[in-house]
Write a structure and sequence with these properties.
Blueprint: E1 7-8, E2 17-19, H1 27-33, H2 36-46, E3 48-52, H3 57-65, E4 74-79, H4 80-83, E5 86-87, E6 89-93, H5 99-122, H6 133-142, E7 145-147, E8 151-155, E9 160-164, E10 175-180, E11 188-190, E12 193-198, E13 205-209, E14 216-220, E15 223-228, E16 231-241, E17 244-247, E18 249-255, E19 259-260
Parallel strand pairs: 1-13, 2-3
Antiparallel strand pairs: 3-14, 4-6, 5-9, 6-8, 7-19, 8-18, 9-16, 10-14, 10-18, 11-17, 12-13, 12-16, 15-16
Length: 261
């Protein structure tokens, strides 16, 4: 066993918890009620933050049930084993997005744009992000990135997702959201959301994000700034899913930039 430090957010009092009220109010109202200052602090410290119970069980089950729908809902299907991505499969939504996914994408983005701009400034990157998501998507589309990237993933026993980054083109928003739609212990076992952080001249740091059904993980897409003794440096992050031992696991991903056509 190597000397890397493992961060597991199931530890009591873990810094990556940002609780949200579990209620039937509209999703945008729940998003507005999140402690985004806490989320931003967790992202600055770890590159990830968890918002508990952002979705209701009914909303999770509805989104998971969409996987069997046809091409009116999805634009493409990817079988991971065919591309060396792992095992399991996922489908990209087409426009117009399902109402819940579209509402969450628009409602969450303005709370993350200040973090994204702060990170870019710290890393010396010139790109800045507008306050509203539709303005950012217009920028993507003007550059030829017109394919929607929100997706629905399905894993069965033995499936996993290799460590990766969701980039899709030149215009990349540095944060994304992962929504766990299934309940660990009831619907599946195994299948943890994992991340690695590659640090200059050091071994990579692994993290395990312990999610429950309806939780949202806000994670770095590619790089984030870290302040060291000699100033700010960049670390590179990747995320994936460990092997599912039993059952079926559904996840939705909300990426804020669109893909090149």
């Amino acid at each position: 066993m190597d000397s890397d430090t493992v961060t597991n957010t199931s530890t009591p009092g873990a810094a990556l918890r940002a609780p949200a009220r579990h209620d039937p109010s509209p999703p945008a109202i729940r998003v507005a009620a999140v402690d985004w200052a806490r989320v931003g602090a967790d992202l600055d410290a770890q590159g990830a933050a968890v918002v508990e119970r952002l979705l209701t069980r009914a909303e999770c089950e509805h989104l998971a049930s969409l996987y069997g729908e046809g091409d009116t809902v999805f634009r493409s299907r990817v079988v991971m084993a065919r591309h060396g991505f792992g095992q399991g499969e996922y489908r990209y939504f087409r426009y117009p997005l399902p109402a819940l996914i579209g509402e969450l994408r628009s409602a969450i983005y303005p709370h993350l744009a200040p973090v994204a701009n702060r990170w870019h400034e710290a890393m010396g990157l010139p790109v800045r992000f507008p306050a509203a998501h539709d303005a950012f998507i217009a920028r993507c589309h003007a550059a030829g990135q017109t394919l929607p990237t929100p997706l629905l993933l399905r894993y069965g026993a033995g499936d996993y997702n290799c460590l990766h980054q969701d980039l899709y083109g030149a215009h990349v928003f540095p944060l994304q959201v992962v929504l766990l739609l299934s309940q660990p212990g009831r619907d599946f076992s195994g299948g943890e959301l994992v991340m690695t952080e590659q640090r200059p001249r050091m071994q990579s740091r692994p993290m395990v994000l312990a999610l429950q059904q309806g939780d949202a993980a806000v994670i770095a897409v590619h790089q984030r700034p870290v302040r060291g003794s000699r100033g700010v440096y960049r670390v590179t992050l990747r995320h994936g899913v460990s092997r599912v031992h039993s059952g079926r696991r559904h996840t939705a991903g909300i990426i804020f930039h669109d893909a090149a056509a």
